[in-house]
Specification:
By secondary structure, the chain is of the alpha/beta class. Among the domains are: about 130 residues; about 50 residues, no CATH class. The protein has a 5-stranded mixed β-sheet, with helices on both faces. Helix 1 packs across helix 2. The radius of gyration is 23 Å and the shape is globular. About 30% of the residues are buried.
Length: about 290
């Protein structure tokens, strides 16, 4: 499921692609543009690719990770290969780990397989541990990556000075509408590390974040997800009530299985099967082993 900071980061990439290439230590040159990767078959998140039309063209793939993921190496490799196939140019992947909890022993930055001389696989990507990134570097870099400063290598006592430095730069260098977007992009990842009360105090003097396009996009996505979850909740309850009448009272294991289902289409299909009488038991309906 896409996180709110996906939308914010995508906006920053679109507005300031060179800043992100610099953060990832990637070559900058020629015409740069954020492209739609159109890989919805393998990813539901907001895809983030920058095409660099330099003499040696390539695409930069940025992945933002806030939680541990044991399959991250393979997922980044899959995305990289599919993006390369679609764009027909090399793709360089950079993963930004937004907090220490996202870093696990499974995340190595490479995938390597060897099955004889004729079957070799080597893939690598760059890892940026944002909490280790020098805050002075971010405060002096481009505006596009400035929102990462509050979650970089900064302690809580240093945080007010960091926010003040951000305010000075944004007041002097960004138009009001762009400043709103940048503050929104900063506010979202801050919630990964700092308590809400502290964030509220630090950003008390910042106005207009709710009017930003990014904030409104996130709000609309949240409302849509809420409506979908509401329909799924109703479908789960209806399935349990109808199934109890046709198949008998659901066991605790059955209830637990149904409560994990969030796909509205799947729930409606199960309801249809109960109505049609095509299932003789909860186990048969849900593909569970009989008690």
């Amino acid at each position: 499921m896409p996180h709110p900071f996906d939308a914010a980061n995508k906006h920053m990439l679109q507005a300031h692609p060179a800043d992100w290439l610099a953060l990832g230590g990637l070559p900058i040159g020629g015409v740069m543009e954020v492209v739609d990767s159109d890989l919805s078959a393998v990813s539901t998140a907001s895809d983030k690719l920058i095409r660099v039309n330099a003499p040696l063209p390539y695409a930069a793939h940025f992945e933002f990770q806030a939680s541990p993921d044991s399959s991250l190496n393979e997922r980044v490799m899959m995305y990289n290969v599919l993006a390369r196939y679609r764009l027909a140019i090399p793709v360089r992947s950079v993963v930004l780990l937004l907090r220490p909890q996202a870093m696990t022993a499974a995340i190595t930055g490479r995938v390597s397989d060897s099955h004889g001389a004729d079957h070799q696989l080597e893939f690598s990507y760059k890892i940026v541990r944002v909490w280790e990134f020098p805050v002075k570097t971010l405060l002096a870099a481009g505006l596009g990556t400035l929102p990462l400063a509050p979650i970089s290598a900064v302690t809580e006592p240093e945080l007010p000075a960091v926010v003040d430095a951000m305010k000075k730069r944004l007041d002097g260098e960004a138009k009001p509408e762009e400043a709103r977007e940048l503050w929104t992009a900063a506010r979202l990842p801050m919630g990964l590390r700092w308590p809400p009360t502290l964030i509220g105090q630090l950003l008390r003097g910042v106005h207009g974040m709710k009017e930003s396009a990014t904030y409104q996009e996130i709000l609309q996505e949240g409302r849509a997800e809420g409506r979908a979850e509401g329909r799924a909740t109703e479908a789960r309850a209806f399935l349990l009530r109808l199934g109890a009448k046709r198949l008998g009272p659901p066991s605790p294991a059955v209830r637990a299985r149904v409560e994990t289902m969030s796909d509205l289409g799947q729930l409606e299909e199960l309801v249809d099967r109960v109505v049609a009488g095509s299932a003789e038991s909860w186990a048969g309906l849900l593909g569970m082993s009989p008690d």
